[in-house]
Amino acid sequence: YLELSSNSITGTIDESYCSVRLNIYRNLMTGKIPECFTCHFSDLYFKSNFDLNFFDNYDTIGTCKTIPKLKYLNQTFWKQNKIVTEPVLSLIGQNIGYSISDIETNIPFNFMLKANSKFIKYDSYTPNRIIHEISFRSTGQNFTLTPDPYPPLLSNITSNNHILEFKGLYYSYDITEITITIGDKSCDVTDSTFYQITCTLITYPNQLNNVSGTLKVDQLQTTFNLNLDNNDGNEVFNNYTSCPDNCESYNGNICNYNTGICECPKDWTGENLFNNYTSCPDNCESYNGNICNYNTGICECPKDWTGENCYTPIYYVSSITPTYEDGGLVTMNGWFGDIHKDLNITIGNQECKIDTISSNTITCNIGAGTGKKDVIVYQNGITWKSFNFFVYQSKQQTCLNNCIDTNHGICNTSNGICECKSRWTGFDCSSPSNNNNNNNGNTNNTVNPDGSTTINNDQTTYNILITSLLELDINSDTVKQYPLQNNWNITSNDKNGSNVTFTQILNETECQIVLSIQEIENDIQYSFAGLEFKLDKGSIKVSVSIHNYNYQSPLNTLQLQMISNVSDTTSNDCNSKSASTSTSILDNQTLNYISINKDNKILYGRFINRAISDGHTTLITTSLISSQNESVTIGINIPHCRTSCYIDPDFSLLISPDFKSNCNNKSKKYVIPVAVVVSCIGVAAIVTITYFIYKRKQKKIFEKKIINLNNLNNK
């Protein structure tokens, strides 16, 4: 209800107001009243809600198409001194009015839940296949409806110049619920009632005699045979005789349309086998796309629903926006359904006190704490849990190696990023920069058929590989593992090879992964989850997208594993140095790092502990899977996201401060910037690998001249 009478309001009203019972009596409004209201203007009391304005059509009774349905819908309400949730008989649809008193029927509806689209009857209702007559006094329209599941019955079909008319029982006023197939052709439904359907068969099937067809109404269907060689308005059945109670809907029975006898399968008998028909609890088919298995009487629930009648949501949390260590508001996004009985949220050992809740978002307030915490959500008798999903955030972020010292750079404590001074570069400002040397001609970047990227300079070769995607259970045990290497198909490749796209479908799933590798031609700024980053010219952006991953359990999560390694070849100059690795991984910091040092060149990996999960920013964690002298394997832990996750690590290869540019006058190549960036979309990672190679040309002159000073003097 929206009460705005006697307010001197100006302006117009549009159809967005059709879903409320509106009272704008005595205002200054103009224009036209939407027909969703004017079609009920034969009800003078209802019409008076719009009186004493300046509308153009106040004295006109409009027309509106009413599409009613009777359904069982789950509803939570107060009953016998407690809150209960149970199915109630509901009249739903389009343009069904604004008052219970406007409805004339033998069903005593007692509450308008949503104006013009939903009325309910709180009392219990037992499915009995009774056909109800419903009339709307204000529009003068009459309808025949039943809420009970019953396949459509056919009495006859006529055809006239591509127009087919079906007569029978248990049809629908909503043409979007009806599908008719004749042979291999669709018949487009143009009009329908409870007793009759009209459709247009634009193209006839190749076979005209004894053509099989299917009539489907709201998930229940029946089959038939007809002739289409006589289309002058005659019946087109091929001696069609309807079988009792549409026997074909059950147990694999076959209707003999010539005799009208239901031909039963082995172990079954009877006229129509209804003695073996089993109904599902509370007419499960009225909810959420559920399907009743009439052989077993079990309600087959769609994704994200469970329970005897599929009323209970299988909920999950896909993202969390945490708070700082002094506590505060926490936001959880995911799927929680519309029923929240006994809702309780625990983070660590503290209760998170509920602030707001909807089907997709919960906000709650938590006290002070530190570190990683388990998250437990309980409602409707079901517990959802995720280990170490919540991480208290530190207001003061630290930088890698504290940016060496103030001569090298300054740490931005708000994001943990070093702001390097001139002559220095890198994640910790430890590498000397050489802005006058930009020749990367001695660097070879190769995109391999397995989706990896190889960067080679001199005798040092680094590889970046996205190796596998794992589904982990609540105990972090692997329940599914998908190798990503050697399964790619190249779908596009530009002329110079600077933009390559791969795709693959995970084995025995509908999950698609797309990998694209693109070279960046100019310096760019990019942002991710509220953080700003610079990507230098020469960067190679590697994007990975994962779509429609189907989890085995709502408690499960994903882990994307990546390997960074360096070849074990050793140079024979003064920069020769064995490979070594190190890590800096802290849960409460925005940025974590790994590094591989070889021949005074250091590969840094920076991992951002943020992701975008199903459109919302959330914190993630990074795990060190293994570390050897020449290789580091990292696991990026991704929450239970259904549509998309974005993550954003990056890598840079820099020279060490100990790097010598000249070894006993021997030629030596320097390191200049080249970058590789990997982004994940759906599950997306952006990896930046900056490979610095500095080159200084040096002339070698090895000529010995014997100069005769005497001869020179003679000259």
Automatic annotation (TrEMBL):
List UniProt keywords, sorted A-Z: Membrane, Transmembrane, Transmembrane helix
- TM annotation in the entry: 670-694
The UniProt record lists the keyword Plastid: no
Q: Where is the EGF-like domain?
A: 299-310, 418-429
What Pfam families does the entry give?
Answer: Beta-sand_ComC_2nd, ComC_SSD, TIG
**InterPro entries xref list:** B-sand_ComC_2nd, ComC_SSD, EGF, EGF-like_comC, Ig-like_fold, Ig_E-set, IPT_dom
Specify where the region named Disordered lies, as residue ranges. 431-451
| Name of protein | EGF-like domain-containing protein
Native species: Dictyostelium purpureum
